[in-house]
Amino acid sequence: MTDRVVAAFDFDGTITTTDSFRAFMLDTAGPARFVMAALRCLPWLIGIKPGWSQRGPTKARFLYAALGAVRRETLEAAAQRFVDEKLPALLRPEMLARVQEHRALGHEVVLVSASPSIYLRKWALTVGIDTVLASELAWRDGVYAGHLAGQNCWGPEKVARLRAWWGANAPATLYAYGDSRGDREMAELAQHAWIRGQAPLPALLPNGGFGRA
Q1: What's the sign of the alpha-carbon dihedral 5, 177, 78, 58?
Q2: CA–CA gap between residue 176 and residue 161 (Å, rounded)
Q3: What is the DSSP code (8-state) at residue 205?
Q4: How far apart are the first and last CA of the chain?
Q5: Which domain holds residue 125?
């Protein structure tokens, strides 16, 4: 029987204080192009909450409206700048500490997010997270194709990604950290789940499980 322990963290609103994709796009496109893209995509953006439009395609459409057929190396450079200069101010210190607590206990830490991997992978390496399961941008001849490669990593897709990642070697214990409806299925899969706003962040016990904060 496996003794594998995995800690799965959502990113936006869980590790960060705000939507990192919005912050990334504002930083990369600049205020004027950001606003123009938002206006072009307004019908799809306002349709997300009532379910009239899909999150993944809308996100991809907005990126294309703001940046067009941007080359991959250009967006990679923008992603690195964002990680170095802007993202640190959006991070929650207590969640960074929780990531390190899990690592100190020998747990595998995985980031599971609907935001694009282009900047999440760069950030994850700075805190010792080797595995990032996130939304992937589609590229054609080194240029952004205007859509996602595969599914948006949100809700049920988070569970699908986790199961595909661990394959036949499922963990004996799964911790899940989230903050929204998009994390519900991941939380239901876990033996130990924490959702922001429902309870204080509990202490970790050395032998597994949560203790009192």
Answers
A1: positive
A2: 14
A3: P
A4: 30
A5: 5-211
Helices marked H in the chain — which ranges? 20-29, 31-40, 42-46, 55-67, 72-81, 93-104, 117-126, 156-166, 184-189
Query: Which residues touch 198 (CB under 8 Å, ≥6 apart)?
Result: none
Q: What is the pTM of this model?
A: 0.93
The helix/strand/coil state of 127 is: coil
Query: Rounded to the nearest 5°, which phi and psi values hold at 132?
Result: -125, 120
Q: How do residues 88-137 score in pLDDT, each as one tens digit?
A: 999 999 999 999 999 999 999 999 999 999 999 999 999 999 999 999 99
**Structural tokens at position 96:** 């960074």
Number of domains in the chain: 1
Q: Which helix (H) or strand (E) holds 53?
A: none
The CATH number linked to 191 is 3.40.50.1000
* pLDDT for position 197: 84
Task: Report CA dihedral (66, 76, 122, 53) to the nearest 10 degrees.
Answer: 30
Nearest to 20 by CA among 110, 93, 82: 82
